From TrEMBL:
InterPro entries per the UniProt record, alphabetical: 4Fe4S_Fe-S-bd, 4Fe4S_Fe_S_CS, FTHF_cligase-like_sf, Helical_ferredxn, LUD_dom, LutB/LldF, LutB_C, NagB/RpiA_transferase-like
LUD domain mapped to chain residues: 64-292
Name assigned to this protein: Iron-sulfur cluster-binding protein
GO molecular function annotations of the record: 4 iron, 4 sulfur cluster binding; metal ion binding
Length: 475
């Protein structure tokens, strides 16, 4: 993937993409605002959610051990994965031990993060996505572009063509007379998936929450496909980020109000599935939990950055972000797009690559993301924090003209005398660069800045000069 500015430029050229995104995000924004406004205690719920998450992260070692004990006592098995490679190896070996060559999957960002489907494919195991949007993405040989609605960049006509051309290659084909009516598309997906649900012996899921006291996992969804995966197969493997823990069942009461309102604009999720260990004669008879680190402890060690781990994957920040609405999720080069992806991904993966270095700058810092976050993650503050880290990690390296320019600005602003000289030069240059009251086009690389802005020209007299002239001394 190229760095965000280059990827965004490519996506901005797609007018259909911008239309699809604007239509979808506007609808979700409106629904969210309506249901949030119904609650008089929304601010208190938000504060409670943030406090529960912050407390859990501060005592994560305790709650992880408590969760492992509870799962084991309930008949499940807990595995610990330090990174994506280890998690993929564990899951692959667990599937191979059953003798099966295919699995059905509940929508899971953790498994997308570690590229589990690709790892299973290398081992000769087919992984079938069962969430409708994830099915669209998989059949279209595409990648997700939204946390909640992975196929948000597709319209109904595009989905119909994907179903007609691809379904028959991997299972029950779409009807020949398929139209782009939502009900017809959903029916085609239902028929295609039914044979996979009934045939599969192994399922893989993630989890929205994991309850430390009881070892319970929780998945919330809108379609019911997740419940089919969680109940029909004989073996269930759940890949769960270590940050998904909450201390007790009582804490779920807060999040089961915050999440649906923030994500889908609903008062409650249509399907909320919970499972604890193994129950004889009911549901999967073999249950495994893979607790995934993959950079999370690195984020936890950052006193500022760790608040990103409070994220409950609601996607509210994406739906209000003016940058995301115009570029879509693919430009972010990560399974986590939008504002939360811009602060979470560089912490999970580090900032060694050009993609990850660019992500903290993929924002206008307007603050809308913080206003809607149900667990009060201060994303604008985190973006600035990560920008500082990127600059510090590249200390002394000025390999681009803009970097050199920022170095000169730092040198000028770091000394009062140099700043005074610069202000006098700026006032003099007003006649050249600001004939119309705004700064005209400057030569490269400054043209990258002036071509996109109508910035006011420098004042005829600086505050410093005015003070010296009127007060007879230096300010």
């Amino acid at each position: 993937m190229p760095a965000f500015p280059d990827a965004a430029k490519r996506e901005l050229a797609d007018s259909q993409l911008r239309h699809n995104l604007a239509n979808a995000t506007t609808t979700i924004r409106r629904k969210r605002a309506d249901v949030v406004e119904e609650l008089d205690d929304w601010a208190q719920l938000r504060e409670s959610g943030a406090e529960i998450k912050a407390h859990t992260l501060s005592n994560l070692d305790i709650y992880l051990e408590r969760f492992e004990t509870a799962v084991t006592e309930a008949g499940g098995t807990v595995h610990w994965a330090r990174d994506a490679d280890e998690a993929n190896r564990i899951v692959t070996e667990l599937v191979q031990a059953t003798g099966e060559r295919e699995v059905v999957k509940v929508k899971s960002m953790a498994t997308q993060e570690i590229e589990l489907n690709e790892a299973l494919a290398e081992a000769g195991i087919d992984a079938w996505e069962t969430d409708l949007a994830e099915l669209i993405v998989q059949l279209g040989h595409d990648t997700p572009s939204h946390i909640l609605v992975p196929a948000i960049h597709r319209n109904r006509a595009e989905i119909r063509e994907i179903f007609r051309s691809e379904m028959g290659k991997v299972g029950t084909p779409a009807p020949d007379d398929l139209t782009d009516e939502p009900a017809r598309l959903a029916d085609a997906a239902r028929r295609h998936l039914r044979e996979k649900f009934l045939r599969a012996k192994v399922a893989i899921s993630g989890a929205n929450f994991a309850v430390a006291d009881t070892g319970t996992l929780v998945v919330v969804e809108s379609e019911g496909n997740g419940r089919m995966c969680l109940t029909l197969p004989q073996t269930l493997i759940s890949v769960v980020g270590i940050e998904k823990l909450v201390p007790s069942w009582r804490d779920l009461e807060v999040f089961l109000q915050l999440l649906p309102r923030s994500s889908t604009g609903e008062r409650m999720n249509p399907y909320t599935s919970t499972w604890t260990g193994v129950t004889a004669g009911d549901g999967p008879q073999e249950f495994h939990v893979v607790l995934l680190d993959n950079g999370r402890t690195n984020a936890l060690a950052d006193e500022v950055g760790r608040q990103a781990l409070r994220c409950i994957r609601c996607s509210a920040c994406l739906n209000v972000c003016p940058v995301y609405e115009r570029t879509g999720g693919h430009a972010y080069g990560s399974v986590y797009p939008g504002p939360i992806g811009a602060v979470l991904t560089p912490q999970l993966r580090g900032t060694a690559s050009e993609v990850d270095k660019s992500l903290p700058y993929a924002s206008s810092l307007c603050g809308a993301c913080y206003d809607v976050c149900p667990v009060a993650i201060d994303i604008p503050d985190l973006l600035v924090h990560l920008r500082t880290r990127v600059v510090e990690e590249r200390s002394g390296v000025r390999d681009k003209p803009m970097d050199a320019l920022m170095g000169v600005a730092s040198w000028v602003l770091g000394d009062a005398k140099r700043l005074a000289v610069a202000q006098k030069v700026a006032s003099w240059s007003r006649k050249v660069i600001g004939r119309r009251g705004t700064i005209g086009r400057l030569p490269a690389p400054l043209s990258r800045w002036t071509d996109a802005r109508d910035a006011p020209a420098p004042a005829q007299e600086s505050f410093r000069s005015w003070w010296e002239r009127t007060r007879g001394g230096k300010p």
